[in-house]
Amino acid sequence: MNLKTGYPYPLIKSGLPFDYPKLEKDIHTDVLVLGGGISGALAAHYIIKEGVGCTVVDARTIGLGSTAASTSLLQYEIDTPLSKLVTLVGYRNAVTAYQLCGKAIEKLGRLAQTIGLDDFRFKKSLYYGVNKKDTAFLREEYELRKKHGFDIRFLGENTVKKQFGFSAPAALLSGLAADTNAYLFTHLLHQYNLPKGLAVYDRTPIDSIRHLSKEVLLTTHHGFRIKARKLVYATGYEIARYIHKPIVSLKTTFATICEPLTSPPPYWKDDTLIWSTGDPYLYMRSTPDHRIAVGGKDVVTINKTSVTKMLASKTRLLKKDFHSLFPNIPFIPEFSWAGVFGSTKDGLPFIGPYKGLPNSYFALGFGGNGITFSQVAGEIVAALIKGRRGRNASLFSFERS
């Protein structure tokens, strides 16, 4: 599956910072993590932290799947609003899911510092309404989040205009958010864990997987065999190959980033992350090198040729949307790209075991905040592998659907 199209800026900016070998021998490992992007890197990190031997294998060069296409906005808000999520999974579960994502941002910030990643910045997040009818929804969402201790403010139309300079009927200002570089985060996580015993192989496609009663046997495309006590699937949106029921709907989102601006951020109040209530929603952030990234204009996932043809027109529309909010900020697109993302019925990820595939676990962080979900997944899966009951694992289990 083609998970990206165009020239993702994180890849242009960071290039190929580290090299990893192909697997060219038979190996045994306690745990094999299938997928070396941000989800696999976080899963491997927590497994290594538990003192368990771990190997990562990826069919591509590390990070060149969905991870390279990520715009890396980190928010505790799930694509499904809290006020709607309570009707889908229950009040307590919905609140817990939001709280876990909030804690994940804080943990990711500490982890970035530990591994020496400079490109991580805590920020605020503005969620603005696009229509008058969104005001009542935003008010309800505000009351529910405030009740459960989230750092949240409700902004009326005049306040949005005064503080941010554009017109919106209402908005929510969250005090906890961040942005980062998921691609570089992934590489530095692997580099941090290699001296601790992690093995990482890329450009190593897997042709067959056999789940046995006490182990999992895998065969690579070139005929090498891997024997693992446990297998962790962290393959993201390519999971349909292994799960024989529909769990995720795939879409393609588009992003563009402008040429460097002459003045440093903030270009709007507090350098806040901004996203809308639209469907699909518009989202934007600044970068440390004085650029602005804008994304949205999602479509149901289609073939790469069609997405490539759309890229220029989607870039123009994203530029137009940006200038509808900030007409006085120069925005000359320099790099544009498209990436696949997935959404589930309730907006939550799938984490943990799957019936019919013994000795395996899944770490699937779907949605617009897949990075925070991947952090949650890493901790849960590592605990399950060590034989502990994964706290909150039932909330994200396959049995819930």
Chain-averaged pLDDT: 93
CATH level 4 superfamily of the largest domain: FAD/NAD(P)-binding domain
What's the shape? globular
CATH topological fold name of the largest domain: FAD/NAD(P)-binding domain
Structure write-up:
The protein is α+β, with helices and mostly antiparallel strands and 401 residues long. It has 2 domains: 185 residues, 3-Layer(bba) Sandwich (FAD/NAD(P)-binding domain); 150 residues, 2-Layer Sandwich (D-Amino Acid Oxidase, Chain A, domain 2), CATH 3.30.9. It has 10 helices and 18 strands. The strands form 2 sheets. Strands 1, 4, 5, 6, 7, 12, 13, 14, 15 and 16 form a 10-stranded mixed sheet that branches. Strands 2, 3, 8, 9, 10, 11, 17 and 18 form an 8-stranded mixed sheet that branches. The model has no long low-confidence stretch (mean pLDDT 93).
Please give a handful of descriptors for the protein shown:
single chain; 10-stranded mixed sheet; D-Amino Acid Oxidase, Chain A, domain 2; 8-stranded mixed sheet; FAD/NAD(P)-binding domain; alpha+beta
Quick structural summary:
This protein has 401 residues and is of the alpha+beta class. The chain has helices spanning 9-14, 38-49, 66-69, 82-89, 91-115, 134-147, 157-164, 182-193, 304-325, 370-385, and strands spanning 4-6, 27-34, 54-57, 73-75, 120-128, 152-156, 170-180, 199-201, 206-211, 216-220, 225-233, 249-258, 273-276, 283-286, 292-300, 333-343, 350-352, 360-364. The protein contains ten helices and 18 strands.
